[in-house]
Specification:
mainly alpha
């Protein structure tokens, strides 16, 4: 049983080691994406201000308008992104551990069921022997 537990823990550790670089890359990409969305929103705001200024003063030239896309929602707050990243990291960390524990519990359940079955077989054999003797 200790060997199986050691194997499960080894698999969990190796899985964590394999997944951790992907988690770091995901975190970096997510941060850069957030910065890009903020920059795009700021550019759109500046372009909108330039449109208003151009309407008021024709001498002011507006830059290229890249804000033809609909603005769905403002970018998520850093706190919500951080919380989501923490939840995702814990989920990825705990999934192999939970799977390993599930395998161990199921193995213990099978051993228990085999022991109960063996006790029932022994009891039935005793009853059978008693019925033969009578």
């Amino acid at each position: 049983m200790k060997v199986k537990l050691l194997n499960v823990l080894t698999v969990c550790l190796v899985t964590l080691i394999v997944i951790s670089p992907a988690m770091v890359a995901l975190k970096v990409v997510w941060e850069k994406h957030g910065e890009l969305v903020k920059a795009q929103n700021l550019i759109c705001e500046v372009n909108n201000i330039n449109k208003v200024n151009q309407a008021l003063e024709p001498a002011v030239t507006a830059g290229v308008n890249n804000c033809d896309r609909p603005v769905v929602n403002q970018s998520p707050t850093p706190d919500s992104v951080y919380k989501l990243a923490i939840i995702l990291q814990w989920f990825i960390l705990l999934t192999p551990v939970c799977i390993g524990l599930g395998i161990l519990v199921y193995d213990r359940y099978l051993v228990h069921r085999a022991a109960v079955f063996q006790e029932q077989v022994e009891m039935l054999e005793k009853l059978w022997q008693q019925s033969i003797e009578q």
